[in-house]
Amino acid sequence: MNNAEFRTHAHALADWMADYLESIEARRVTPAVAPGDLRRALPAEAPEGAEPFDAIWRDFESLVMPGMTHWQHPGWMAYFPGNASPPAVLGEMVAAVLATNVMSWQTAPAATELEQVTLDWLRRLVGLPDGFTGVIQDTASTSTLVALLSARERATGGAFGREGAAAGEAPRLVAYASAEAHSSVPKAARLAGFGEDRLRRVPVDHRFALRADELGRMMDADRAAGLIPACVVATAGTTNSTAVDPVAAVAELCERHGAWLHVDAAYAGTAAICPEFRWVLDGCGRADSLVFNPHKWMLVNFDCSTYFVRDVRHLTATFGTTPAYLRGAYDEEVANYRDWGIPLGRRFRALKLWFVLRSHGAEGIREHVRRTIGQARRLAAGAAAEPGWHVVAPAELGLVCLRFQPDGMDDAAADELNRRALAAVNAAGRYHLTGTILGGRQVIRVALGGRLTEERHVEGVWGELRGAVSGER
Ligand SMILES: *Cc1c(COP(=O)(O)O)cnc(C)c1O
User: Fold this and answer.
1) Which of 29, 228, 347, 351 has its CB 3.0 to 4.6 Å from that of 432, i.e. a possible disulfide?
2) Which domains does the chain have, with CATH numbers?
């Protein structure tokens, strides 16, 4: 493809992208496909000869598009939102053509400094104190792994990473997270060498938030048994129900035990941009690290996860490497992001973040958050007033956890009915929801926060849910 052809196709794609967004509602949210459909339609071998882009594009439209799930659809209410607002897409396009690698200041001076500036903007917007420094990681899962690795290094004075098992410390380290913590936490505990059996799952209260009294007892017991409480992962906004752990009380315990406090605010952190929802990060100024994902609720397309640390030296101590072939002339004065995380090579993600922060402005993002939370509150109020329906967790942010169980219906029958109702709404294709198990029982999650989701869509999904259980009471 020469540059003239590139120009032509890029213009056409710009139109296609705008048309896609304009007409997205006419599509099903999820495709009607079975496993293997696309694989069977494509040849087993890569083409030997060059193919014209028009032919590739025809196959994309006829074979690939029909198998896509549409996360930007206004009926997308599954998992959590994954918003890609237009300025973010433009940032992604420019980053793709520059194809710069932000591994060090030397390899990407302006990209490095743009990341420093935008992350400091974000730090101020969510109210983290001066001294915290941010860096973009690919996902919250990676950020939490980075936190556990840093905690391990600090707890062993660096010995574990450098001397391995010979240091003898890692097996004695213990990490803690609530029973409701995301699956990325046990995964990180395994990868960071704590072992899943040395990740204590702390019981939760009736609001599904970590019980600090139980955490305190567990840390004391481990300490008495000769183990080292090294890290607590608190969650601000759990995936199941957006429960917010009592971070200030957890910080108290971490300070007493010298344990690293990491806060996973992957979804809910965005809410802190609004002064009235700052409380979701209460106490987080005392954390050692915190992650939240602009790629969920903050209108930045995947991937863009922002990781903040109170003392950046823990990052460079854990992840720093300086082989001769990577040394630069300004290493003492600049941020070399290769030393702030796991990969060497890094994408230019700060550009789309900068485009989004400037295009929407902080006030535009606040409006989006407030609109989402307003929608969730109206849905929760409507459900609470409807006979047989229950709002089974506090709906304080953009997620509403619902369960239909009229008086007299036993738990197992209600579980089955809620699973069927969820499947019926999803099968119709206008909305997409996911369920979960909360307090041992099946619930239906309605996750709002999509950029294109309007009040009428919330009313629409609520109508379909009621329809799916009608005649069942
Ligand atoms: C979504 C989510 C994650 C995982 O996010 P990734 O960026 O996909 O790794 C972790 N923790 C919580 C609380 C989440 O909601």
Assistant:
1) 29
2) 3-72 (1.20.1340.10), 101-347 (3.40.640.10), 362-472 (3.90.1150.10)
